[in-house]
Specification:
Blueprint lengths: L2 H13 L3 H13 L3 H10 L17 H12 L3 H11 L2 H10 L13 H13 L5 H14 L3 H11 L9 H12 L5 H14 L3 H18 L12 E4 L3 H7 L3 E6 L3 E8 L2 E5 L11 H10 L4 E10 L10 H9 L4 H7 L2 E11 L2 E2 L5 H11 L7 E3 L2 E3 L3 H13 L4 E6 L9 E9 L6 E10 L8 E9 L5 E7 L13 H8 L3 E5 L2 E4 L4 E5 L2 E4 L7 E4 L2 E5 L11 H12 L5
Parallel strand pairs: 1-11, 6-8
Antiparallel strand pairs: 2-9, 2-10, 3-4, 3-5, 5-6, 6-7, 10-11, 12-13, 12-16, 12-17, 13-14, 15-16, 17-20, 18-19
Helix pairs in contact: 1-2, 2-10, 3-12, 4-6, 4-8, 5-6, 6-9, 7-8, 8-9, 10-11, 10-12, 11-12
Bound molecules: adenosine monophosphate (AMP).
Length: 570
């Protein structure tokens, strides 16, 4: 199949906002393809060549891509840079420059989907010395024989910026439509979704749907070593509400760390995050604890890994652990510097049997029976079984005193539903942080589809002398397109008249515009001039009724930080 056919579909998807039309178009392409192509297309439509949980990454940054475009099109680097600045999209740069190519390729046959797919796969396997050069050639080979539009999408795919709007839901429905047309549509979609929770790879799922239909999909089961989508939590309005939700609740500490799904098969252990990243290499200490303290030969257990202060033994906020998650080198030192504690709360597979259908009560008993607890290192999550509000309240306060986020309230009679926030599932209860009124004092120009707009915003609080100090970066709560509410476009328009100066892609703004901002937590941070950073700040609304002088002060942030920390001193 020619790559240009896929490119036509990309183009159509990019300019078609209707979800139903997208589904039809994707289904149309998938249903006409053979088994091999179905796998390639389903992945390429989402900008990948490997399953979504695979660690592989193309490893090409914008700078290298600019060199590739320059060489493959024969244009000077200044042209590449200038166009990039104007458009913020190297895909468009490649498209434009190829249409005015300085060197012509003598002979080139049309690019096939297979050729693109295979070259991209090769990219991820190239490592070590000279890898940048080899990567250069693999991509340049494609770009040199690509037509302008083809180059646009190859470049975007390689940079991980395909953005044609084939979200997981669209490809799911398209697979159902293409291959399970005879089934009841809702059931068909459910079967594809179920398969995806257990095998997060639409390429393989599309192949199974094509070759063995519903029956094949339903047979897909949890496999040790391959990650699945975990059960998610919902927020409860209050502890009382959460308690009332279940006849038989268990209340557990909600630890502030990393969700870990831990797979064990004999001596082999894998650790995956909730986003299905394989972090086994980053956590040799967890691997060892599992080998030593899990009695089952084969199992999959879940828990929360928390970073610990090695001097005091107290839990550290998540930001410390996150350094370990991202770490590729010097891992041994990190193991020493930031030891982890694993708090286990579920088991979903034991010696070949999947336990999703068993109630939590039974799963907890099984979990207890397979692990050997090592206090403060590898243990069951702390929990109490009670429906008594006073006892629950005391336990909640204890969790906060232990510097954890709050509590999880779970239904002992509930089964495990992978990949979902389900009604009647887990309920989280944590303190609500008060919103802050902050001034937008800076911004960064966006790239890709946000080119031309400011896309993330520097928040500022006031100090005693009336200066504004940075306390976080915000890009959430803002809409892409105008529905109703605040969009990137409207914010940019509002802020543009207040630009003081620009440094590269950063904009320094006069402190004029006040926004009400919600956030999860306040952290200490050397990266911002206030010394504090808001975690996950999101805009609630603009406050045209407030002037910058009314904005919240550093002192208030300090106070809130202390209060939150003083959720208790141990
Ligand atoms: P949230 O990320 O706020 O939606 O909360 C859900 C997350 O809390 C889970 O994905 C876990 O990473 C984490 N968590 C901490 N303690 C527990 C616990 N006892 N049970 C389940 N999840 C927990």
């Amino acid at each position: 199949m020619e790559y240009s056919k896929l490119v036509e579909l990309y183009e159509y998807l990019e300019k078609t906002p209707s979800r139903l039309k997208k589904i039809d178009a994707v289904a149309g392409m998938l249903s006409g393809a053979d088994e091999d192509h179905v796998v390639m297309l389903a992945r390429l439509l989402q900008g990948r060549v490997f399953p979504s949980w695979s660690e592989e990454d193309f490893g090409i940054a914008s700078l290298l891509m600019m060199r590739i475009i320059q060489t493959s099109t024969g244009h000077p680097m200044q042209d590449v840079e200038k166009l990039f600045k104007e458009t913020g999209d190297l895909g468009i740069v490649a498209e434009k420059l190829i249409s005015t190519k300085k060197q012509t390729t003598l002979f080139s046959s049309p690019l096939s989907v297979r050729k693109v797919f295979e070259n991209l796969r090769k990219l991820s396997s190239v490592t070590g010395k000279g890898s940048q050069e080899r990567k250069f050639h693999i991509v340049a080979e494609l770009i040199s024989s690509a037509k302008p539009k083809e180059a646009k999408y190859i470049v975007r795919t390689v940079l991980g910026e395909l953005r044609v709007g084939v979200a997981d839901g669209v490809i799911r429905d398209a697979i159902a439509k293409a291959f399970l047309g005879k089934e009841e549509p809702k059931e068909a979609v459910k079967a594809v979704e179920w398969a995806w929770f257990l095998l997060p790879d639409y390429g393989e799922i599309a192949r199974v749907a094509k070759t063995s239909g519903m029956e094949g999909l339903r047979k897909i089961s949890l496999e040790i070593g391959k990650p699945y989508r975990v059960l998610l939590a919902e927020k409860a309005p209050s502890l009382q509400d959460a308690l009332n939700s279940f006849e038989n609740p268990v209340i557990e500490f909600k630890y502030d760390g990393m969700r870990a799904q831990i797979h064990k098969d004999g001596e082999k252990v894998w650790v995956y995050t909730r986003r299905l990243e394989d972090v086994t290499r980053q956590f040799p200490d967890i691997v060892e604890m599992v080998r030593d303290n899990v009695k089952a030969r084969k199992c999959i257990i879940e828990g929360e890994a928390v970073g610990m202060d090695k001097r005091t033994g107290n839990p550290l906020p998540f930001q410390f652990l996150s350094q370990r998650i991202q770490r590729k080198y010097g891992i041994e030192r990190m193991v020493e510097e930031i030891p982890v504690q694993v708090n286990l709360f579920d088991i979903v597979l034991l010696e070949g049997e999947t336990l999703f259908g068993k109630p939590l009560r039974e799963r907890r008993t099984l979990l207890q029976s397979v692990i050997r607890e090592v206090p403060e290192r590898f243990q069951l999550a702390r929990g109490i079984i009670t429906k008594d509000f006073r006892k629950a309240q005391k336990f909640y306060e204890e969790a906060l005193r232990h510097r954890q986020e709050g509590v999880m309230v779970k239904n002992l009679d509930a089964t495990y539903q992978p990949g979902r926030r389900v009604a009647g599932g887990w309920l989280k209860v944590k303190p609500v942080m008060e919103n802050l009124d902050l001034v937008i004092i800076g911004a960064v120009w966006g790239t890709g589809k946000r080119a031309g707009w400011m896309s993330s915003f520097v928040l500022g609080c006031r100090d005693e002398d009336g200066n504004f100090l940075e306390c976080g970066m915000m890009g959430t709560g803002i809409k892409e397109k105008d529905e109703s509410g605040i969009t990137f476009e409207s914010l940019t328009k509002l802020l543009k008249p207040h630009i003081e100066r620009e440094e590269g892609n950063r904009v320094i703004l006069k402190p004029k515009i006040v926004a009400e901002v919600a956030y999860e937590e306040i952290q200490k941070s050397p990266n911002y001039s206030s010394g504090y950073a808001l975690r996950f700040p999101r805009i609630v609304r603009l406050r045209p009724d407030r002037s910058p002088e009314d904005a919240d002060t550093l002192e208030r942030i300090e106070r809130l930080y202390e209060q939150q920390k003083g959720r208790g001193d141990k």
